[in-house]
Design a protein that fits this description.
CATH topology of the largest domain: Ribosomal Protein L25, Chain P
Number of helices: 3
CATH architecture of the largest domain: Beta Barrel
Shape: elongated
Number of domains: 2
Strand order of the largest sheet: 1-3-2-6-5-4
Amino acid sequence: MKQLELRAQTRTLFGRKAKKLRREGLIPATLYGPKTEAVSLQVPERELMTVLDEAGTNRLIALLVDEGDKSRSILARDVQRDVVTQSLLHVDLYEVVMTEKITADIPISLIGESPGVAMKEGLLVRGLDSIQAHCLPDRLSESIEVDISVLEERDQAILVRDLVVGEGIEILTNPDEVVVQLLPIKEVVIEPEVEEEAEVAEVEIITAPREREERPEEPVEDLAEPESGEQEPQSE
């Protein structure tokens, strides 16, 4: 598997001045971990977006901080985006200890074709997109493949207990949860969309499973953009 790398620099701008970083194509980040003192960083936006697209929250990334720093093994954790533009606002980077187990979500990938669908026995209904696992960092799988070619008859299902995972991976998700099932067409009900009241939100937080260690608090001002016409503070 290709090693993913990410370069970062120690951050010196905080609070409302962080918007200057984003204008320059740099995203504020926080590095932390069970044996890592919290460090404020800045990461090139384009490089970060590329790495996040490939790594998600369950693939190890080699992080290099400043020139000459040794490589650190990290996982991307909380990724904060602007709700309207989906542009990156902030990211948490969790430095793992390779000898200590972690909890992470592993995506489920469906492969093959269901004979039941081909014979119009029913429709394929997916129950889970991922499972939660507990393992050493280097045991994390990029995804878990599920062969749906075994689904031939109505009501047949593949449960979490049926999944085959790599050695050393403990599945924490309920074993009776349905991963995918072949349901009769008449039983597949599409819920009507309900219009919700529009709410104005600035930040959407996509949260991955947390370790026992709590991440350090990031200043609230780091995520806030001043309103139009507001003067930036001259000094921090």
